Fold this protein.
Amino acid sequence: MDGADPNVAANFDFNGAFPPNFDMNQAMAAMAAAMGMDPNAPIDQNMLENLLGDVGMDQDLLMDDDMDIEAIFNGLDLAAGVDLDNPNNPLGNINIPWMEEHEAANTEAQKLGQPSYSIGKPIEEIVGERLKLLRRGHEMQLFDIGNTGLSTHGFVAPAEPPVQGGIMDCLESMRRIVIEEYDEGVENKTGFQQIPSLLTRVRDLLRTFYDFKVGHLRTPDLHYCDFPELFDVAYGLHEVGLTIQLDPSRLKTLMDAAGPEIERVILDEGLGIGRFRELAKQYEAEKNESEQHRTSAFWSREDGRGNSRMIKDRADEDLAAYASVYFYADIMVALLLNRSGDSDDHLTWRSKAMKKIVHWSSDEEFRHLFGDCLSDAMRPIYWDQQLLVEFCGEGGLASLIKDATQSGACSVVAEEAFSSLPDTVWTSLTESGLSMATESLLSITGWAYNIQNFRVLLNASHKIYKAFGTAPFNRLSMTKKWNESLMFHRLVEKLREEEEAGLPRKTQPEWKDLLLSSEKALRGIDHPLRLSRLSPSDRWRCLEFYGCENPDCIHTIKFLRLREMRARGLREGGEAEMDKSLYEWGKGLRGCEKCQSRIYCSTECQNDDWKEHERLCRRYQQAREGGSLNVGPGGIPIFGLPLQVV
């Protein structure tokens, strides 16, 4: 590191250069040692309190372990936000004005440009409204995380006129052909024929730029990467794409002049994930394969997880496809909106556009690659009821569910579209569409705190259950990933007997109660079940997470020793026998009988740990009796106001 970023360094009153061999980890370790701390050991509570005192922290702010549950909230002014009767504020969160203003502005930006608001407006004005969501997203990104993402600068400073054959020159040419000349009455067919090659040039130069930025692969073409910010590239592509989409005559001119090339570049080639994400996937696959026979501690640096995270984070800095996707999606949506064409070519293009946009928007890898840019560009699909039904029938229902519950770019629009779906969408799902839609329910997180997400989960799961019974949920109930919800496993178990007995299917209110009860299982029930369902290698790695919580448990100590032997290839009694031994021991794990918040493998272990656990156990019991104990993810008890999801 040659020197400090002056913008960052100024915040720390630091204006000099870092030493050539500066190592942040060593510096932090030295600081810890200077304070008499072992940098590799967990921080001691007494030392923490002393440290807080040394830096002037008010000791009265520290919470007493014996504090009553009610006392936790004493002195906190919750009146402004607490409204337990308000379904939109189930937790009584304090309302913060600037956050409310941000949400309102985001909702308004999502709805701008929709057909019902655009009647009689010129194309230029509608395009401007549609572009506001991209601009607002960029502004919020700058506000939240600073100069990253679309604020990335090109390799060379922009010039006037721009470098011939460079990114900005290509964008200006596309805009001149599609917007300026066409608005002046010049239908430049020769110019429209150049659009695919100009788009390809922009795509390839962005790939060149990020090959250098991420992988330090230098080529002469870097000097053509002359954009002021990556935002200018995305904005320019989106503006041209929207203008074509909103004017059928321009779309016809483009496809008449360059249809086969548009088909090849956009519908056949599309956008790839890039070489660095491919390498990250390959590394992750090889690591997972090796871990099937190696079970060192779950968070150990030795198992490659730190390296895997670092490689993936580095690959995620590649935003070439992220910035390019607008034009691709705009043209595909334009083809989908155009139902008047009946030529064989148009029907082929439309079919390909539907398949690709369903794949891009439903596949987790591509959703991560394109982010909110793709969701933003897909809003016209959600505004058009006829196209929406067709999209869902082709497998896009999973995408709609994810956009309604995950995406900041069109969550409001997608949630409204989801609510408008006719019942025929659910009853006519294909086998693959049903499978993808059901699997998408696993991606809905935070629904206990987000009324919109809960509504989508409730309605989607009940529609599937009403049409197909419990069969679609069976595969979800078999999930064995350590961090996935077991809600569907519990749900299927509860319903199987009723279904076999021929009882009528649950009404939606009954289904809501069933969902909530299936998710709320305390740790003493949740964790032993998770451990029993893991693969053998994951069971060894998660031993500390889901095993006995008596720190002096002789069985845990034994299994930790066996785990290290197993990781080094020393098979004491055979690997299968070791796996069976751990599995059988795990079947005996039980939660504390009084609070179910702590897990033990035997009565002896619970008695040994009682001195440490008694105080917390008493607090949990008190909270439960007072109705102020919630159940969080993984069965973790949470002190606070009772959840009210409606």
User: Anything to note?
Assistant: The chain has a mean pLDDT of 80. Residues 307 and 524 are 33 Å apart (CA to CA).
